[in-house]
Amino acid sequence: MLNKNVEVFMGCDTGWHFASTVLFGAPFDGTTSYRPGTRFGSSAIRHESYGIESYSPYQDLDLFDGDVTDIGDIELPFGSSEAALDAITDQTRRILHSHKRPFMLGGEHLVTLGAFRAVFEKFPDVHIIHFDAHADLRDDYLGVKLSHACVLRRCWELTGNGKIFQFGIRSGDREEFTWGRTHVKTNRFDFSTLEEVVEQLKDKPVYFTLDLDVLDPSVFPGTGTPEPGGVSFDELRRAVTLVCSKLRIVGCDVNELSPHYDQSGVSTIVACKIVREMLLAFQK
User: Least CB-packed of 68, 182, 189, 278 within 10 Å?
Assistant: First the structure.
């Protein structure tokens, strides 16, 4: 009898009952404002993960020694952002109710709102660490409030002031930056204050959302809204390792890979290595 052909992120096949982190995909890009294609990001990351080693020489850890299970992509309806967000919330809620950490692979950045709604239900004092090129603080985008350009504004409506910490931000309209000065903490362009924020948030529940376009497009061209002036791979690797090893991460996501905009495949491999380093950092 043939076995099912089930593809998981390499090394992430621990049984459900033994897993502390649950990886799942949210293949949705219904509000992408420039170049669509992030719906293919999660499956590309899984498939190409077999092109990298499970062992990280940076951390001296191996995915095959971890406790992560990959349950695959959830099926999302296109044409309704709210219905897609509801499905993501339900999936995240099930993972949290099993006392496990949800780790979502997007998808466009709006999917974060679905996961964060469930996290906020369980951890109402949760804080957010947000890596991105874009502020994502618009109240609406072309009259639409459920947009990847508005996702952190919608999250702020749950958390309130002073609980969102942004890093790498280098793009947004004037109103976003003006509004953000009094509502969120923004470190423009880089991670220069990250260690201070990590020290401040120790022992607090934290949701970590990583938009891969925080990377410079010379490193990561495979994204829907590339923004020159970003960080290097090694800067991002060090930053995610710090966040995931030192903080109480109760949920996280990696999003905005559009694999077909980089036919070399390098962007997907970059995403794979960042996901690997995050998962391994949780072991610490």
Answer: 182
